[in-house]
Write a structure and sequence with these properties.
With 61 residues, the protein is mostly helical. The chain has one domain. Helices cover 79% and strands 0% of the residues. It contains three helices and no strands. The longest helix has 24 residues, at 31-54.
């Protein structure tokens, strides 16, 4: 059950990034800057996930 929630979360984040990147300003960035922004967002998400798991914050359900 947890794996399906993880997959749904990943798909949601990718969908949100696609919607945000469809804005005209993001099209003007070019591939390198777009990739850099995607890596920064990935780093933020991974860091927050690791911090939450390290401190043992769990959702009961």
């Amino acid at each position: 059950m947890i794996n399906s929630a993880t997959i749904a979360g990943i798909i949601s984040v990718i969908g949100a990034l696609i919607l945000v990147s469809s804005h005209s300003r993001f099209r003007e960035l070019g591939f390198a800057k777009g990739l850099k922004m995607a890596l920064i967002w990935a780093l933020i998400i991974i860091t927050l996930t690791l911090v939450i798991e390290t401190f043992g914050v769990r959702l009961k359900g």
